[in-house]
Amino acid sequence: MRIVLNEKTEETVKKIHLLTTRLCSRNCPNCCNLLYTDDIVPFVSDEELKQCKELFLTGGEPFQFTNPNEIAKWFKNKYQNIEKVVVYSNVTEFKNYLSLGGQIDNIDGISISIKNKQDVEDFKYVIKHSEVDKMKYNRVYVFNKLLPENYETLSFKRFDRKWQTLDEYLPAPDSIFRRMI
């Protein structure tokens, strides 16, 4: 199965999910990136970026194979209309980026996934990081009930997820998906 991408409309172009890298060190079951081939994901255009309000950097694994903070800085400087930049990542890779001194001052939010026990441990580090706490648009996606239901964090909105089969997967309906690679 291959994904059919959302049409570009006046509304969907305001939110762009931007593929920054295909590289990822994980081999997640039913990875949606297997559905996105270069022949169906167009390059992002200058025209689209001039209409964008929210930019979501995704991959592969952006914090392991790119520098999302520098990418966010570049897009915000070139396109003043971009109001926020959010990065999608796995917890462990984000934690490793932070622990190596990686900067996040140009990023407005992080959407991270907890997919294994190591991610649970690394999430404890992430939520205590003072710069992460300042971000306004943080989300955590919890797979396989790896965090207890009552696990509270003030800086992350929680979403419990289950692995979707490739047949069930649909792109976010309110945005378009593009690539920069």
Helix-residue proportion: 10-25%
Question: What amount of the residues lies in strands?
Answer: 15-25%
Number of domains: 1
Mean pLDDT rating: 89
N-to-C order of helices and strands: EHEHHEHEHHEEE
Our measurement of the CA-to-CA distance between the termini, rounded to an integer number of angstroms, reads 23 Å
Strand order of the largest sheet: 6-5-4-3-2-1-7
The whole-angstrom Rg is 16 Å
How would the blueprint of this fold be written?
Layout: E1 15-21, H1 46-51, E2 54-59, H2 62-65, H3 68-78, E3 84-90, H4 91-99, E4 109-114, H5 117-126, H6 130-134, E5 139-143, E6 157-161, E7 176-179
Parallel strand pairs: 1-2, 1-7, 2-3, 3-4, 4-5, 5-6
Helix pairs in contact: 4-5
Give a brief description.
With 181 residues, the chain is of the alpha/beta class. The chain is 25% helix and 22% strand. The chain is globular, with a radius of gyration of 16 Å.
Explain what the structure shows.
By secondary structure, this protein is α/β, with parallel strands linked by helices. It has one domain (12-179). The chain has six helices and seven strands, in the order E-H-E-H-H-E-H-E-H-H-E-E-E. The protein has helices at 46-51, 62-65, 68-78, 91-99, 117-126, 130-134, and strands at 15-21, 54-59, 84-90, 109-114, 139-143, 157-161, 176-179. It has a seven-stranded parallel beta sheet. The model has no long low-confidence stretch (mean pLDDT 89).
